[in-house]
Design brief:
By secondary structure, the protein is an alpha+beta fold. The protein is built from seven helices and ten strands. Strands 7, 8, 9 and 10 form a four-stranded antiparallel beta sheet that branches.
């Protein structure tokens, strides 16, 4: 793999002034040689002018958080990162590579989650180039490479987790956003490392069931929520009944046989677990009537 090596280049401002000074002297020499009719002097002045004009091609500007990749006839020479006006060999080709932080959002992908349910998912990826040599020479188009690999990693991640966890503690796309985002970032970094790219952040920006099953899955989630809520209500009601029986027995308030205890438990559970307001009924007789 081609690794980046830094080439500072010569300070451009001083050399720019020197080039203008030589250019002025060369023009003065050319005019004077033409006046006196010296063929050799004219040739020398023209050669100097051509050299100065060629030297101007060596100037380039490096902006902050930017790099210029230098090549000589296809061979990698180095990368200039020092901001400002710089000068290098005029025959170097200079390719600009931005090292600023970039971000993009993937398109909405339609994939099947771990349970086989079709879902729509998208993510936001924040990245920057850290090795310009790898970015330019290891992949054909590093920006397109980042986009394609991001969608591939997101698709692969979505198939490994269910949309909603069916077991306690199971990681799911909808309930473990931070953990899923960390895994997406790590997988992306593995894929993009050879392109000289650092993944700063990757997170899910859109997550939903596909339209064709959205209504059915919403009913399923509602039913699961109702069952879970009922389970909690029953657990609480049983605990309250146990506490009531223990307090009655401890205080010797009333003696209850097994049949009366069963009737009391039944009535309390109906009152505590009902989703509607209960209507009291006064029994004027006995339990055995």
């Amino acid at each position: 793999m081609i690794k980046e090596k830094e080439v500072a280049g010569a300070p451009g401002l001083l050399l720019l002034l020197l080039h203008f000074a030589i250019l002025g002297l060369s023009l003065w020499a050319l005019v004077s040689r033409i006046r006196i009719g010296s063929p050799l002097g004219i040739i020398i002045a023209c050669l100097i002018l051509a050299a100065v004009a060629t030297g101007f091609a060596g100037f380039f500007i490096v902006n902050p958080n930017e790099s210029k990749v230098l090549q000589l006839f296809g061979k990698y020479v180095g990368s200039a990162r020092v901001a400002g006006l710089r000068w290098s060999n005029p025959f170097y080709s200079k390719r600009r590579v931005s090292m600023r932080v970039r971000n993009f959002e993937t398109s909405k992908l339609k994939v099947n989650d771990k349970s086989g349910n079709p879902i729509e998912i998208a993510s936001v990826v924040v990245w920057r180039v850290v090795d310009t040599a790898e970015a330019v020479f290891e992949v054909d188009d590093f920006q397109n490479y980042v986009h394609v690999q991001s969608e591939a990693a997101l698709r692969n991640l979505a198939t490994r987790y269910p949309y909603v966890g069916h077991e306690e503690g199971e990681e799911a796309l909808s309930s473990h956003a931070a953990e899923i985002s960390d895994q997406l970032k790590n997988e992306l970094q593995e894929r993009l490392a050879q392109a000289g790219v650092l993944v700063i952040e990757a997170r899910i920006s859109h997550l939903a069931y596909s339209p064709e099953i959205a209504a059915a899955m919403l009913q399923r989630q509602q039913a699961s929520a109702v069952v879970a809520a009922r389970q909690k209500i029953v657990e609480g009601a049983v605990g309250m009944v146990e506490t009531a029986l223990e307090m009655l027995a401890r205080g010797n308030i009333i003696e209850l046989d097994e049949e009366r205890k069963a009737s009391m438990v039944s009535n309390l559970l109906v009152v505590l677990c009902s989703d509607r307001h209960t209507q009291p009924v006064v029994n004027t007789g006995t339990l055995y009537n």
